[in-house]
Amino acid sequence: MTGLKHLLKKKEKVDEQKPLVVERSGNLDVPEFKCIRTTTESEEVIQPPSYPGDDDQDSQTKGSPRKEKKRPQLGFRRSTNNVSHTRNGSGDSLASQPTEKSEQQLPVRPKTERKLSERFHLHRDRPRSVSTASSSHLPDDLPEAPAATPAPAREGEKVVQEERDVKEHREAQWEKRATILAHSNPSLLEDHQEQRQEKTRSHSPSITDHAGDETIQEAIRLHELGDLTPSTAMFGRLASPSGPNNALAQVLYGLALRHGWGIPPEPENAIHYLALAASNSASVEEAALASGMKRGGAAKGELVLAVFELANCFRHGWGVKRDPIAARQYYETAANLGDTDAMEEAAWCLVEGFGGGKDKYKAAQYLRLAEQKGHKPVGNSWVWKEKYNPK
Prior knowledge:
Layout: H1 2-7, H2 11-16, E1 35-38, E2 43-46, H3 54-59, H4 116-119, H5 164-182, H6 193-200, H7 210-225, H8 228-239, H9 247-259, H10 267-290, H11 300-316, H12 324-335, H13 340-352, H14 360-372
Antiparallel strand pairs: 1-2
């Protein structure tokens, strides 16, 4: 143990001490230590250099020829690959020679050529800006996003009032974009054979059916009282394409299937109903826009809600393959149609670089809008810095 303490001293202190003498008993060799440093990528043999007096100790051994061997010395050497480094009588290094029993080692780059990030695994996958064409849930011909909803310039102030025609035109563009997204996922509507058969017999989408609305209110009341099973059953009957085909009930039934409200969770079936709600409400809104209405058709609320919940599915991979690009596009669409939850989620995507490049300026605009509508989470005071004021 005393010998190890000496070996572990710093080099400058070792040079000042007398050479370490290890007594040998009979023909026993001096104990040797082999130090190997390994990582998940490499294996490195640590061999220290020699010091004055080492060879003299070997020459004191009588009656036996000198053996070439490694010595337990302090220091670090670059890794060796299946070779043994020896020295001649004068202590000079000889060429590396293969050992009799070579141990298999991974090829190691010289330490001077390796970056710290490679040695300590500091590299991380950074979000990259990706085109929408790489998403299977977005149409290839999706037009450029319209102008975003304006945000207030300072905290507590209202947005500068736009001209009515400008505001209506912008909202109509975002609503049209929402209908394009809602109709761009036919595969989500054809996952189940029974539902495909129901779709062929489906009625026109029900949005303002008075009896249906009263039943939905009753289902919501039961849900809030904790009677989840009868509430979900009621949502399911109203959501059936061969029955009332109610878009709001389809959203609520999709959420019940996704989260297991009184029934076993069925995420694949849940996203089918959410996509069905988006498609049905989009059809109503398209008809309204075609008739000359500039904004806010009868199914706008259902469309926005369905788009937002589909964004959550794409973000988390609920019932569908995870798709950050689609999630971000859906969040931004719902945000520009007035959904405050979507504003916060779209801002998160922009800050973190989820589904595209980072853009804190744009994120600040969404968070300002959400705060103006009453959503003011703790820790968002940075959005009111002057550099994030609308340009």
